[in-house]
Design goal:
2 domains, mainly alpha, 177 residues, 43% helix
Length: 177
């Protein structure tokens, strides 16, 4: 949580901006000093904004906000290292969103295992007229987690993440191997 930083000095003290008449006033000086104490962390944050928005250097309490900013909702108990990795690779998830590769990437990032993704669709080519269509009529996806998947894996967080990665019209489910 952002707050005051004991001993942090403002680089731009407010008392220096006062007219000369008020600089000598002890009440005005104390008021400005109190405001400087509150504003100094704001100025520090603005000076370090790039570091706050970089997932590698962002403070841990900003990571959930950053994941939401890039459209991911992993869950409240997700480890900070996982959140950093999700934000850093959000562009890949966005690029491969709606594909089996994107689903595998999401599972690998959040759970740490390589899943088997079984799709119901298909594609084919035939020189003859009206060949049978491949795949099933109802689009569905099954994400099979391998037998070595950790028991404490955040499956609820995985389901929230998959809801944003799998196309909306496709039924899907996660199965432990």
């Amino acid at each position: 949580m952002r707050g005051t930083v004991p001993g942090l000095v403002s680089p731009h003290p407010l008392v220096d901006t006062l007219p000369a008449l008020y600089r000598e006033d002890p009440i005005a000086s104390r008021l400005c000093a109190g405001l400087d104490e509150v504003l100094a962390p704001v100025l520090l944050t603005l000076d370090c904004l790039g570091a706050h928005l970089d997932p590698r250097t962002a403070p841990e309490d900003l990571l959930p906000w950053l994941t939401g900013w890039v459209g991911l909702v992993p869950g409240p108990g997700t480890a900070p290292d996982t959140l950093r990795e999700l934000v850093a690779t959000a562009w890949q998830l966005s690029t491969w969103c709606g594909t089996a590769r994107g689903v595998r990437l999401a599972v690998r990032l959040l759970v740490g295992v390589e899943p088997e993704v079984v799709e119901s669709g298909g594609a084919s080519w035939d020189a003859g007229p009206r060949p049978p269509l491949p795949g099933e009529a109802v689009p569905r996806l099954e994400i099979r987690l391998p037998p070595g998947t950790p028991q404490d894996a955040d499956l609820a967080g995985l389901e929230r993440l998959l809801a944003g990665v799998v196309p909306a019209h496709v039924e899907w489910r996660v199965v432990r191997g």
